[in-house]
Amino acid sequence: MAKLTYDSWYTYDGDFFHDSEDESKGALNVLKWAYDTYDNELVYACSFGVEGIVMIDLISQIKPNAKVVFLDTGLHFQETVDLIQEVKQRYPQLEIEMKKPVLTVEEQAEKYGDKLWERQPDRCCYMRKVIPLRETLSGVTAWISGLRREQSPTRKKTNFINKDETFQSVKICPLIHWSWTEIWDYVKKHQLAYNPLHDQGYPSIGCFPCTLPGDTKSGSREGRWANHLKTECGLHQKS
């Protein structure tokens, strides 16, 4: 497959990399193609949930010094921050950037009022996540995400390679065919560190004001923005 850019997109077989005999369900194949094709023009945006831990381990097998960005909103659980330090120790060659928004949490409160995430969660996510990722992606051609099809109805049509209208980029999603059980089987098999909040009833972990426990058996995004009609932070276009 030729190199794709947002402006030169063409139709392709979404399961091009999927091999039924491949234990990674195409993940390693698509990652190898992605780094062979984009190299330093590729970044992995990682939230450091359990899918992210699996993705980092897979990426390290292909490109040990890969670029990884974490959107450091200033509102993350301490457990998430601690986990990032563990990951840095296990994969010392990774280039992990802690990307912060322009405004600190305190500055945002002064300008827009306290607890904006309760009153206008979309606006809060836009300032603290969408804009910082847009700034990061402005310097690269493609990015990697840990989306899985079974996570939510808005993600069920995600392909290995996607035209990203939100950031006018190419979005690569190696884990689309993985189940929640397979994610955890991989973590246990390779003895990977993971966020202890997963053991406390949190299937999906984001900012602490907007994350509650949910269904840990299915790995759904239940518990994210539980008190709002909202299922995404704005980084991923709904399918």
UniProtKB/TrEMBL annotation:
<feature type="active site" description="Nucleophile; cysteine thiosulfonate intermediate">
    <location>
        <position position="233"/>
    </location>
</feature>
<keyword id="KW-0411">Iron-sulfur</keyword>
<keyword id="KW-0479">Metal-binding</keyword>
<comment type="pathway">
    <text>Sulfur metabolism; hydrogen sulfide biosynthesis; sulfite from sulfate.</text>
</comment>
<dbReference type="InterPro" id="IPR002500">
    <property type="entry name" value="PAPS_reduct_dom"/>
</dbReference>
<feature type="domain" description="Phosphoadenosine phosphosulphate reductase">
    <location>
        <begin position="42"/>
        <end position="213"/>
    </location>
</feature>
<feature type="binding site">
    <location>
        <position position="210"/>
    </location>
    <ligand>
        <name>[4Fe-4S] cluster</name>
    </ligand>
</feature>
<keyword id="KW-0963">Cytoplasm</keyword>
<feature type="binding site">
    <location>
        <position position="125"/>
    </location>
    <ligand>
        <name>[4Fe-4S] cluster</name>
    </ligand>
</feature>
<dbReference type="InterPro" id="IPR004511">
    <property type="entry name" value="PAPS/APS_Rdtase"/>
</dbReference>
<keyword id="KW-0408">Iron</keyword>
<feature type="binding site">
    <location>
        <position position="124"/>
    </location>
    <ligand>
        <name>[4Fe-4S] cluster</name>
    </ligand>
</feature>
<dbReference type="InterPro" id="IPR014729">
    <property type="entry name" value="Rossmann-like_a/b/a_fold"/>
</dbReference>
<comment type="similarity">
    <text>Belongs to the PAPS reductase family. CysH subfamily.</text>
</comment>
<dbReference type="InterPro" id="IPR011798">
    <property type="entry name" value="APS_reductase"/>
</dbReference>
<protein>
    <recommendedName>
        <fullName>Adenosine 5'-phosphosulfate reductase</fullName>
        <ecNumber>1.8.4.10</ecNumber>
    </recommendedName>
</protein>
<comment type="function">
    <text>Catalyzes the formation of sulfite from adenosine 5'-phosphosulfate (APS) using thioredoxin as an electron donor.</text>
</comment>
<keyword id="KW-0560">Oxidoreductase</keyword>
<feature type="binding site">
    <location>
        <position position="207"/>
    </location>
    <ligand>
        <name>[4Fe-4S] cluster</name>
    </ligand>
</feature>
<dbReference type="Pfam" id="PF01507">
    <property type="entry name" value="PAPS_reduct"/>
</dbReference>
